[in-house]
Amino acid sequence: MTTTQQGARPRHVPQRTCIGCRQAEGKRGLIRIVRTPDERVAVDPTGKANGRGAYLHAQQSCWVKALKGGTMRNALKITPVREDVEALRAFALALPAEESELI
Questions:
Q1: Which of 17, 30, 82, 84 is the most exposed place for a label (fewest CB within 10 A)?
Q2: For residue 84, what are the CA distances in angstroms to 2, 33, 54?
Q3: Domains of the chain, earliest start first
């Protein structure tokens, strides 16, 4: 009987869907927004904050789509207050406008 040595199994990469463009990508390649336990909406830079989360690409077009329509409201199951929406818009303005700028 011969034994074959197997290589390391490839690591599982969790997939998440961007609520702006509806494209799936690895969890680490997206930015998480979270509905906090006190019913606020904020950017979660660590990806580990408590609360219901949703994911967006790091480009302005996805954030504009998510903030304009009801996708954020549906994904987080809450209507964000105006201050939270303005904070998210300010965050989005600091992001690249096009995907090609990410490379």
A1: 82
A2: 62, 11, 15
A3: 15-96 (3.30.1230.10)
